Amino acid sequence: MNFMLRSLNSNLVFHVWLAITASLIGLPAYAQAQSSIANNTNLTQDKVSSNSQQAEPSSVGELTPSSTTAKDLLAQNPAITITAVKVNKASESLEVILETVSGNISLPTAQSQGNILYFDIPNAKLSLENAKEFLSASPAKGIASISVTQANASYVRVMMTGVDALPTAQISSGAKGLVITSGAIAQATPDDQEEDITVTGDRKRRPSTASKTDTPLRDIPASVQVIPQEIIKNTGSTNLDAIIRSAPSVQQSSQSNYGFANTYIIRGLTQSFLRDGVPDGLTVNGYFRTLTDVESVEILKGPGSSLFGSLSPGGTINLISKKPQNTAAYAINLTTGSFGAYGGNVDLTGPLNEDKTLLYRFNGSYSKTDGYRGLANKSLEFLPKVTWKPNEFNTINFSFDYRQVDVIADTYGIPFRGTELLNVPKETRYYTPFANNTQSIYRGAINHEWQANPDLVIKNNLIVLYRDLFLARNASGGLFNTTTNPDGSSNYTNTPAPRDFREQNDKNLDLTYQTEAIWKTFTGDVKHTILAGVEFQYKNYASFRDTLRFAALANPFNPVLETSRSQAASITRNFDIRQQANYTGVYLQDQIEFSEQLKARFGGRFDIFGLSRTGSVLTGSVTDRNSYSQAPSAFSYQAGLVYQPIRELSLYGGISKNYLAALSTEGTTSVFDPPESALQYELGAKTELFDGRLGINLAFFDVTRENFIITINDIRQPVGAQKTRGMELEFNAKPVDGWSLYGGVSLYDARLTNLPNTRIFEGNRPTSVPNAAASFGTTYEIQSGDFKGLGFGGGMTYRDSIFIANDNRRSLPAYTTLDLVLFYRQKTFEAQLNFYNVTNTEYFRNGVNSGGLPGTPFTVAATLGFKF
Fold first, then answer.
1. Facing residues of 780 across strands?
2. Mapped to the 3 state alphabet, what secondary structure does 83-149 carry?
3. Given the DSSP bridges, would you call strands 124-126 and 80-89 parallel, antiparallel or unpaired?
4. pLDDT tens, residue by residue, 409-451
5. Cα–Cα distance between 699 and 584 in angstroms, integer?
6. Which residue of 142, 206, 242, 674 is 20 to 30 Å from 434, comparing CA positions?
7. Looking at residue 507, what is its pLDDT?
8. Integer Cα distance of 697 and 728 in angstroms
């Protein structure tokens, strides 16, 4: 009851959001809509406006130049003068030509806000005959308007506004100047990846994870990897564990990774989860994530607290959801495979009304597998979404997620005895047969985006996540007794030890509210993209745990396991606690474009963390019933510089500071004061060659993590420290149409640098961190002829050896696995066969406390898909 009553505090935030949304949809939208209607009354053909202050038809706001006086323009002495603008109409395309005195113009970068596609041409002057700007109303189907204006003393802006959707365009240099060719308005299908504007013939996404804006990755001084829908589809991945193998910088963690939740490390450090840019649940005792409604996976490497607040220092994994589309499309997929696997999913989308202001998408799935080594997994998901566009200035997205996940966890794997794994078949099971983990996840989200004008966007997000987890698993201890050495390390003996079994219930309520403004402006000739935001998070966690003690196994080589909990020798209550936390953050970021070659980013965030806890925790033989509260604060920041000597190459450097207020449902883990921190330095290069057909990213980094939680005399304290230096190289290529390649390699030198209770471990490699990891994949699809749509490919994954504990006495060997795929795709039908670990390599995918969890042997998965 106390848990639910306290959750009512969230009502205040919800009513604040409603008030803001009502005001944003109401008067501003009404005023701008009336202005747009009035302007459209008489503008029915191409014309040139002689009044620079006249509003354009169907625009989302009036463009206000920073400086357009003749004196300022002449003082800048721009090198490019645009003397004429012409619009040529064809049956399936629209061509906008900007004629210049000198000829060619450097290709600008396409940018977008809502339904507006625009290009800012630097070092340019608009000098039209008898006019100050160009304006064309309804020049083609799906295009509301085209305008060319002097945005600033030395910038000319070309703006193309779509009626119902964002236009697409190709940019090229013509004999007389710049040519912008626009085709039909993009009509995305459920399987289309959300893509950015076509520039020089290549379609690129603009991930927002690194900046929360639409800034191109080439202009960001940070490392971001995107796993697109194409790779998700070709690898046959249905859950996050499966697709993450495509990212060599991300590794399975050995800590709290028993199979019922996703736990990874990035750059040798722990990571956090986002969903559509918003914090998404816990990392420790979190939940198992599928890819049912995931369009792509974005991985920000390194600290991200200056944008997202309390985060793990290794980086963030951001799951980008599929969005409702304005064209009806329906897809069904059925799957089956090894170990009794079967399932299916549906993807339905389209408009709910005739004018397409109300769109929907429904993703649903069911999957079940008996699992290798009996590690069964079953999930059921219903994921509806609705997008409402009451007018051209506002977009409101509603989504609701229901997930029911049942997973059997294995905390032993194949156990160690001494420093060696037991020599038993990999199918041998040591986990208690009635172990099971059942969780229900409910997540509701409302997102409102208001396009105040072409240069200003206001966003509001309200997210509520509730999770109910019942966890029944073996505890972390090994099968054998241990002896402690003088240096603090431990050895496993040959004597079997009693085994503990945990029953735990977690009830988590997370509420997050964000309001953000993105403003694009100028100071003189310098262009700014400014992000300002405020975020509130409220968390209410209730947790209890009982431990059941079972007798030692008489013969570990032929284990006889219990069949019911009644066989336990004793039951002990470990903890029964309530935790409430409030996070409040204010953040500001400025992305600065000094010139086409030089760009910078500066950002900072101030957070206040509040934690209160009540209940009882058993520490040793003493039950602590004291309540306590904390309210530390932290300032995180980032700064970086990008230099682009040529358009195809970006050289960057950056520094970022991170904070993590560690909150967990584990009874003794939540320690805020002081928060964990990390500082990263990074240098890198990003290049795109051959009209975007080859992309290469290279990064060097040095990150130091401090105050992470370790145990001293049975008390968990934030005093540990770790340093990781490394290099990451990634590439993606499309040498010819239909042929795709991707891959990467990561090299690490990770060391523990401060462990007060075990000094002897300092200098050791941290748990789960390899010295090297790599992945590679390729597919080819026949583009024409009788076999058009037939494709094949494969992928390789390599991971160096890892230690399962900080004492570096027990390790899991390096491994390489090989996967193959064969598919046939037509407009309404597709079939796919995936072959995993085709060489049937024996390997251990990650450590689990005192053992290693065997990787899956050779398996096959078949998928049939139908589109309507």
1. 739, 792
2. EEEEEEECCCCEEEEEEECCCCCCCCCEEEECCEEEEEEECEEECECCECEEEEEEEECCEEEEEEE
3. parallel
4. 898 999 988 888 999 999 999 999 999 899 999 999 999 999 9
5. 32
6. 242
7. 94
8. 8
Could you give the CA distance from residue 610 to residue 718 in angstroms, rounded to a whole number? 17
195 is written with which tokens?
């893509």
Structural tokens at position 255: 């800590």
Q: Which residues of the chain fall below pLDDT 70?
A: 1-79, 91-92, 102-104, 175, 183-206, 485-490, 619-628, 667-673, 710-718
pLDDT in tens, 492-509: 777 888 999 999 999 999
Helix (H, G, I), strand (E, B) or coil at 245: helix
Given the structure tokens 């970006």, which residue do they identify?
650
> Tokens 């979190």 label which residue?
286
**Which pLDDT score, from 0 to 100, does residue 20 have?**
39
DSSP string, 292-303: TTEEEEEEEES-
Length of the chain: 868
Encoded tokens for 592: 């600065």
Model pLDDT, residue 601: 97
Helix or strand or coil: residue 217?
A: helix
Contact 115, 163 (CB under 8 A): yes
Q: DSSP states of 576-603 as a string?
A: EEEEEEEEEEEEEEEEEESSSSEEEEEE
**3-state SS string for 349-399:** EEECCCCCCEEEEEEEEEEEECCHHHCCEEEEEEEEEEEEEEECCEEEEEE
